[in-house]
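tool=predict chain=A
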Amino acid sequence: MSDYQHEVEELERESATAARLFDVRRIIGGLFVVYGVIVTIAGLTASDADLRKAQDININLWTGVGMLALGVFFLVWLKLRPTVPPTADELRAASEDGPAEG
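tool=predict ok
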């Protein structure tokens, strides 16, 4: 195997790692989990005065639990269906077919 082919394979591996690292589902899921934990803690420590203002509904607790559920959903989705970047052969075949007409 030539040095050029070895270099291309190494770049493909790095590209696949970068694609998984910056997957939008990871970012959205992580942010929702972090904010969900913060809001849930705020809901758990709500005073009686806070609850009276919200007509005895602990909105911080319910919103925090919902945010946690959504964040976990995104992270589980990421785990079950990971991103697979196209290989060099697939990219080469797509460029040979020409641009898609719309």
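The mean pLDDT is 83. Residues 26-81 form one domain.
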